[in-house]
Write a structure and sequence with these properties.
The chain has helices spanning 17-29, 40-49, 66-75, 93-101, 114-127, 129-134, 161-172, 180-188, 200-215; strands spanning 9-13, 33-37, 54-58, 84-88, 106-109, 141-144, 149-152, 155-156, 177-178, 222-225, 229-232. The protein has 234 residues and is an alpha/beta fold. The protein folds into two domains: 9-134, Response regulator (Rossmann fold, 3-Layer(aba) Sandwich); 141-232, Winged helix-like DNA-binding domain superfamily/Winged helix DNA-binding domain (Arc Repressor Mutant, subunit A), CATH 1.10.10. Helix 2 runs parallel beside helix 3 (66-75). The two termini are 29 Å apart.
Length: 234
C-alpha cells in the first residue's frame, strides 16, 4: 500500500452479505475504497497481502473469529498500526472489553447506523498517521452557484457580489483568458442592478487576489495577460 495514494482503503470483514454490501456502499459514498471479505481466515490472508488503511471487523466470523483476527493483525509489525473498528451483535460489556483488549480502536454494536460507523471511521482516521496522510481533501476551490458562494479548502471566502461573479467566471474556465469587457458582462449576470464599470474590474481583481492569497498563501491563481485580460489557473 502506498501511503501517499488516495482514496483510503477500507477492508470490511463481515459474513452477512447484505450488511457488508450496505457498509461498502456508504464507504464508497464517503470517498473510500472498500474491499469486502466474508471469511475470517481468508480475510487475514488478504489483509496481509495488501494492507488496508482501516478494518471494519465483525466479531463472529467463519474460519477465524474477529478477536483472533484482530490479535493476529496486532501481533504483526506490518499491520500493528492499522485501525480496527469492531462490529458485533454481542452487546455484553465483557464482549466489548475483549474486543478492545484484542486491539480494536472502536466497538459498535449491531444493529448500528452506517452513518454513525462512517463518522467513527472518519474520527479514527483523523487521529491515525494513515488517515492524516490519505484522507480525501476538500477541493481547493468549490463554487456554490445557488448560494453564490465560493470556498477554498472548505472555508468560505467573504466576497462582494461583483467579486463572486468575476471569480466564478474565471474559475469555471481555468486557462481561458477573459477580457475586462467579458468579465464585466459575466460579473453582472445574476446580479440585477449591479453597477460595475470596465475600469472597476482591475480594482475587483486586486481585491480578489488579496483574499485568495490569504486563503492560499504563495499561490497565484489569477494571472494578468498583458493587453488581453486575466486568466485563472489553480
Amino acid at each position: 500500500m502506498n501511503l501517499d495514494s488516495t482514496p483510503i482503503e477500507i477492508a470490511i470483514v463481515e459474513d452477512e452479505p447484505e450488511l457488508a454490501a450496505l457498509v461498502a456502499d456508504y464507504a464508497r459514498a464517503a470517498g473510500y475504497a472498500p474491499a469486502v471479505h466474508h471469511d475470517g481466515a481468508r480475510a487475514l490472508a488478504a489483509l496481509r497481502a495488501r494492507l488496508p488503511d482501516l478494518v471494519v471487523l465483525d466479531l463472529m466470523l467463519p474460519g477465524l473469529d474477529g478477536l483472533a483476527l484482530c490479535r493476529a493483525l496486532r501481533a504483526d509489525p506490518a499491520s500493528a498500526d492499522v485501525p480496527v473498528v469492531m462490529v458485533t451483535a454481542r452487546v455484553e460489556e465483557i464482549d466489548r472489553l475483549l474486543g478492545l483488549e484484542a486491539g480494536a480502536d472502536d466497538y459498535l454494536c449491531k444493529p448500528f447506523s452506517p452513518r454513525e460507523l462512517m463518522a467513527r471511521i472518519k474520527a479514527i482516521l483523523r487521529r491515525s498517521a494513515r488517515g492524516r496522510k490519505q484522507e480525501p481533501a476538500a477541493p481547493a476551490l468549490a463554487i456554490d452557484a445557488a448560494a453564490r458562494r465560493i470556498a477554498i479548502h472548505g472555508r468560505p471566502l467573504e466576497l462582494t457580489p461583483t467579486e463572486y461573479g468575476i471569480l466564478a467566471a474565471l474559475a469555471r474556465r481555468p486557462g481561458q483568458v477573459f477580457s475586462r469587457a467579458q468579465l464585466l458582462d459575466l460579473a453582472r449576470e445574476g446580479s440585477a442592478g449591479l453597477d460595475v464599470t470596465d475600469r472597476a474590474i482591475d480594482s475587483h481583481v486586486k481585491n480578489l487576489r488579496r483574499k485568495l492569497d490569504a486563503a492560499m498563501p504563495g499561490v497565484e491563481a489569477i494571472h494578468s495577460i498583458y493587453g488581453l485580460g486575466y486568466r485563472f489557473d489553480l
